[in-house]
Amino acid sequence: MNIYRIFLISLCNVISQRASTVVVALLAIELGAEQFVIGLLIAMYSLFPALFALYAGRISDRHGARLPMLLGSLGLVLGMLLPAAFPVLPVLFVSAALFGMAYIFYHVAVQSLLGAISSDAERTRNFNNYTLIVSAAGFIGPLSAGFAIDHAGYRATYVLLALVALVSVLAQVFARAGAQPKAGGQRAPQGQLAGARELLKQAPLRRTLIGSAAVLTGTDLFQFYMPIYGHSIGLSASKIGFILSMVAVAAFVVRIGLPAMIRRFGEEALLAYSLFFGAATYLFFPFFTDVGVLTVIAFMLGLSLGCGQPLSLMLTYARSPAGRSGEVIGLRLTINNFTHVVVPLVFGSLGSLLGLAPVFWINALLLAGGGAANRPRRT
Question: Fewest beta carbons less than 10 Å away: which of 107, 108, 241, 282?
Fold first, then answer.
């Protein structure tokens, strides 16, 4: 499985994942769900990833990435087809749980595989190119979902997304076997908790994991809560999708110049600066309702989060113990998804009582906390 096939698989799966966040939030609103119920639905995307991400990483380390990637991609297809056939609220919960479980096995495996097939000289370039692909998918997914909803409806949109994910399945089925490095590194301690505690004792890795959780939480919660906010101020699905796509456009732009910025500031310092900038951007968002202004703010947020995501991924892989990169990536996603389970429930309750502004402001605090953890330290 060469690097270009990995990028094609990632493009298709991330398009489906990013588009689904728009569709599920807007469809839940259409079905009459309250904000707390929508928060619970969003949490379902992260419940099983929080429980199984570390396990998924160990499977990838010990048995290779090929099977988890394929089964995960098949799960994405099924997760899209269920609400297409039965567009009712209970099925959305089942779909969200299945989607989260499938995506975490694919996501951990593909990042571990990408690091394993890259030499030290190639790793920064390959991870940066991977995040460029994710940015492109982040632009295509929400934008296409918004237009598809407005012109074809929710069921047709889910079918379209299932077909996109099916392309990644076919790309893996017809990939030549034997091109992937096998597992065989250091074995983790007995039990998931023991392994996690051992990894978290390493201060540089711990700081990176905190920053990574802040970046991914900021990215994913914006994908979920921007549609709710946009609907509350009367924006169409197409306009909501356009605003969301600006985050991906900005991420693509900033990642082109990322290698030069890394050479200038260093990876950890640049991660801290990007988190502080993202926190400031989140503070301003709920004060505006104009589409043009919201688009500019979304672009600024994309500059921040687009910088933070590849940096946290590079640092996570670089600071992983030998033979345990998949486990560390899984721990990274466990922390992130645990936050995703708790935060939407809290935010859903706050949103019902106080409106959506506290959702953005608390997210700003999370990003600022991640920046503080990774701020440059004097030697």
Answer: 107
